[in-house]
Amino acid sequence: MMRLPKFTYLQPRSIGEAVKMISDAGPTAMFVSGGTDLYPNMKRRQQVPKTVIGLGRVRDLSRKRGSPAEGVVLGAGMTLTRVCEDKAMKAAYPALATAAGLIATPLIRNMGTIGGNLLLDTRCNYYDQNYEWRKSINFCMKKDGDICWVAPSSPRCWAVQSSDCVPVVVAIGAKVKLVSRDGERLIEAKDLYNDDGIEYLRKRPDELLTEIHLPAVNGWKAAFAKLRRRGSFDFPVLNCAAWVKLAGTTVTEARIIIGAVGSHPIEAVEAAKLLIGKPLTDEQIKAAGDAAFAPAKPLDNTDFMMGWRKEMVRHYVGLALREVRDGRMPSTFKV
């Protein structure tokens, strides 16, 4: 049986108290909300904070405000269940509601939070093992070792960004608020992530993610598609979000974000450019899927063969774009 290591547990009642606590505790402290990622990682000794600051009593983190016409602000402590079952969210931001609803299982979604999913630790077959297993291979670069077993000659870690909500918030142009003792800053969601399996966030350890600012819905549509081995529970081995703004049937702006095939969300810039000034025909969707194939570079560090996962990029980008066009996910598709 894997047990949690010893740690000090603190429970602030406000955002100000929380950031003061982590500032006073120093670099060995971490925040926890639902705990669905941190506590298993602590049991495997992947993360070993000396102080854990529980955010469950900070009510401001679970509030939602605004309207789709002006933009909606989600508290980072809102559970994934609330996000995916909220009728207004499903109507105005169906891609985010879908992504949240495809995470893990109902029990985990009842505990896990939208903020926690945006900050999800990167994953790898060599890293997501218990301490004894990792010790037997002399650990890895991400924790306790000095070599990346996926690419042994690499100077960096290639652990994979495996959040389902990240591609959506990046694609739709959401922003996130980070608060510390020094003040607060509002940044683009895309600027929160680094292309590095270890330093995967551009967030200081003493900063608390408090809010996700969703943009006003003004003529754009978005959709999300996810590939995994089982129909529930599993992390993605590929996911993607497509964001399209239309004038009539003509695409005026577009973004395509691919997840789970790199250490950060990958923007398929050339694929999106192919859609501009044209209607979303089957031919244009196929061309965009083919163009999205190039920047996706999965490695052999998660489920399924990496070559097959790369090939699936074409088809899952197509699935998301067809949902944007038709208002529903195709019931079947040919590979």
Describe this structure in words.
The chain is α+β, with helices and mostly antiparallel strands and 335 residues long. The protein is 30% helix and 21% strand. It is built from 12 helices and 12 strands. It has helices spanning 15-25, 38-43, 80-85, 87-92, 94-101, 106-111, 114-118, 131-136, 165-171, 269-273, 282-293, 306-326; strands spanning 8-10, 29-32, 51-54, 64-67, 71-75, 175-180, 183-188, 208-214, 220-227, 238-247, 250-259, 266-267. The strands form 3 sheets. Strands 4-5-8-6-7 form a 5-stranded antiparallel sheet.
Mean pLDDT: 96
With helices defined by DSSP (H or I, 4 residues minimum), what is the helix count?
12
Q: Unreliable runs, pLDDT <50, ≥5 residues?
A: none
CATH architecture type of the largest domain = 2-Layer Sandwich
- For the biggest β-sheet, the strand order reads 4-5-8-6-7
Q: Summarize the amount of helix as a percent range.
A: 25-40%
Report on the biggest sheet: 5 strands, antiparallel
Strand content: 15-25%
* Named CATH topology of the largest domain: Uridine Diphospho-n-acetylenolpyruvylglucosamine Reductase, domain 3
Rg (CA only): 20 Å
- The structural domain count equals 3
Number of strands: 12
Indicate the CATH class of the largest domain.
Alpha Beta
Structural class: alpha+beta
Q: Assign an overall shape.
A: globular
User: Separation of termini?
Assistant: 42 Å
Order of helices and strands: EHEHEEEHHHHHHHEEEEEEEHHH
Assembly annotation: single chain
